[in-house]
Amino acid sequence: MASGNLPEDVVREILLMLLVKSLLRCKSVCKRWYTLITKPSFTTAHHNCNAAIKRNHCILIKRFLKESNKSALSFLSDEISCDDHVPTTEITIPHSNHFLQMLGPCNGIVCLTDHRDIILCNPSIRAFKVVPAPSFNYPQGLFSRSLGVGFGFDLQSSEYKVIRIAELHEDDESGGYSFHSVKVEIYDLSTDSWREIDAVVPYVWYFPCSELLFNGAFHWWADDEDHGGESMLSFHINTEVFQQIRLPDVCTFPDGKEKPFLVLNESIALILFDASEQTSFDIWLMTEYGVAESSTKLFTIGPLVQVKRPILFWKHELLLEKANGQWVSCDLKSRRLKEIQVYGAQESFRAVAYIKSLVSINQGSDID
């Protein structure tokens, strides 16, 4: 395209309509295009355009590949019903292991963590940043470990934040440890530094797929001390305020059930199940955010043979992991199962609805 005589606003509008893959090639056309495409205002506008017209949408998968002994990210297009459909673009994650979580996304950026190491990544442009470890001075004899990690974007300050809920404990002579307190620490990407905030929070628990970014807040499972059960703990990214959300009485602790949070019909869905040879999945939906009384049991899927746990709601389907590390999809209307050509180590999968993006990570670097 001979763009030398075109006004810059016209060139900009044309480029905004291109896919991320095409724009990455267009950066090499000329200096003018490179400067335009790499402007933060352009990358933000391009992401918002993609979100508005539902373009560049896909499923982002994190899984552990035994053959390479590494965790990897893959893209799966939205047409998952194709018989020969397989993930594309394997991106090896540095500093990774089997139990890596994937949090987000925010504007195409995801947070990868095993609750010890934390990595911010935009897989669309193969960029990542290893977040420095917190370096707070705790009282002598006390040590910290992560109970929960969250990630979000502050719309008011245009700031990406990582939230760490840490337990302080004291080691004892028997090789165990005694609980001391819980602290909250926040990493700001723009300053590349951590800070503490004053907050009293309940004890946070971890279940697979139980850490969720939704409605401008990050959510974890936590104790419900007032009602003797479990609750949903939310952290609002803009205000940095915690809120404890009561859950239906069906959620008792401990009950031996797994309880992932997923998003269905723009609401938080709670899935209760016991992993066994034949597993049934009870789907509950909180139709009014933050109101326990609005939680309604929609339906039960199963029992399903050798299906271990849910991964993601996608359009009219629920994606699930089988015992052999393969995916299946369950049509929410017909309840019919269909195998998907996605494989990985058991219990290593995470997946999110994803919009490909050019948004960069400040002070990041490219993955080889």
From TrEMBL:
SMART domains: FBOX (SM00256). InterPro entries: F-box-assoc_dom_typ1 (IPR006527), F-box-assoc_interact_dom (IPR017451), F-box-like_dom_sf (IPR036047), F-box_dom (IPR001810), SCF_F-box_component (IPR050796). SUPFAM superfamilies: F-box domain (SSF81383). Pfam families: F-box, FBA_1. Residues 1-45 form the F-box domain. PANTHER family: BNACNNG10540D PROTEIN, F-BOX PROTEIN CPR30-LIKE. This is F-box domain-containing protein. It comes from Escallonia herrerae. The lineage of its organism: Eukaryota, Viridiplantae, Streptophyta, Embryophyta, Tracheophyta.
